[in-house]
Design a protein that fits this description.
Strand content: 5-15%
Order of helices and strands: HHEHHHHE
Strand order of the largest sheet: 1-2
Number of strands: 2
Helix content: 55-70%
Structural class: mainly alpha
Largest sheet: 2 strands, antiparallel
Shape: elongated
Length: 110
C-alpha cells in the first residue's frame, strides 16, 4: 500500500510539473464542490444569545440554520427531523458555538 501511495504522489507531482490537470468526475467532483462552496460561504453576524436559544429550542428542526441563512441545511434538518439525525447535528452545532467569544455587542460570525 505504501508503494502505491508513493507512486500516486510521484504521478501527481509529474502531472503538476507538466501542467496536466485531471478532471474530477462523479462523487469526487460533488465533494470538492461542496467543500469549495463551504469555504467561500459568506459568514453571517448573529446575536449569540438568540442563536443559542434558537439552537436549543428549534435546532431539531433546523431553526438555527435558517437564522444563519443556511437555507439548504435548514431544509435538510426540517425534512429529516423525525430521524433524530438533526438532533445529533444540533448537539454538535451547540458544542461549536458555545466556546465562541462574542464581540462587544454580543454578536458572533456563523
Amino acid at each position: 500500500m505504501k508503494e502505491y501511495l508513493d507512486d500516486r504522489m510521484e504521478l501527481e507531482q509529474l502531472r503538476k510539473e507538466h501542467g496536466i490537470v485531471e478532471e474530477e468526475k462523479g462523487l469526487s467532483r460533488l465533494i470538492t464542490r461542496f467543500f469549495e462552496r463551504r469555504e467561500n460561504r459568506e459568514k453571517v453576524l448573529v446575536n449569540r444569545k438568540k442563536y443559542l436559544w434558537v439552537t436549543i429550542l428549534l435546532g431539531w428542526c433546523g431553526g438555527h440554520r435558517f437564522m444563519a441563512k443556511q437555507y439548504i441545511l435548514g431544509t435538510i434538518y426540517l425534512l429529516l427531523c423525525w430521524t433524530g439525525f438533526p438532533l445529533a447535528m444540533t448537539l454538535i452545532d451547540l458544542l461549536t458555538i458555545i466556546p465562541i467569544r462574542p464581540d462587544e455587542k454580543g454578536n458572533i460570525l456563523v
